[in-house]
Give the backbone structure.
Amino acid sequence: MNEYLKIFKALGDKTRLRIVMMLKVKSMCVCEIREIIGSSMSTISNHLKILKEANLIDFQKEERYINYELNTSNKTVQIVLNILDNISDNEIELDKQKALKTNRIEIC
Amino acid sequence: MNEYLKIFKALGDKTRLRIVMMLKVKSMCVCEIREIIGSSMSTISNHLKILKEANLIDFQKEERYINYELNTSNKTVQIVLNILDNISDNEIELDKQKALKTNRIEIC
DNA sequence: ATCCCATTTCGGCATTTGACGAAATGTAGA
DNA sequence: TCTACATTTCGTCAAATGCCGAAATGGGAT
């Protein structure tokens, strides 16, 4: 599938757009993302897979967690992600303060 | 629905992305778009409605046709549409030469 | 006012998508 | 190797989406 089509499809879902906006705040593991989004682990995992395939996010292993982060190495993706700076948190019902406070140790 | 979410949803469909790329070439009526895309009138019309609701396109009445064109008045949309300049025609299977040659009179 | 024709709406169908819980997998540490 | 736990995969379901042809609509021209 075309690179751009994949990106637009990936961002054209409210849950995934919220995840990307969260990862703009800080990188997180699946269970931290779940803390904010509220869906099941498998659902979150599936969304992350789609975001990964669109090259929007990347991940790094850290201890026994997998830390997801925005992919800043791809130029196309960078440009698209910059656009998201214009979205205000309440527009997509995202509590950035809460997102900042997630903590792996207490959750997982 | 959030403005950006609507835009991403609208562009996250191959047919609609192709339509937008076509309208970058020139403004067209539904039947000209059909000439290139090949789907039914109703299908095209539905896609145009979704693009309109995302503010990506606009239209002008001209004689008994409705001419669809990219909406250049909205800043957000402008930024997103600029990104599309990086998509090559063959990536989304669009024949720009053919798109340039469509002609309302002979089709409708 | 009526005709013509471009466009939209409607109803129905097949496919895709997003959700879940349960089971499977993978990996770090004992 | 075994254990514990984070994450992914699988099977299934309901809802959303995209498509079509037919019927309805609407606006320009006669």
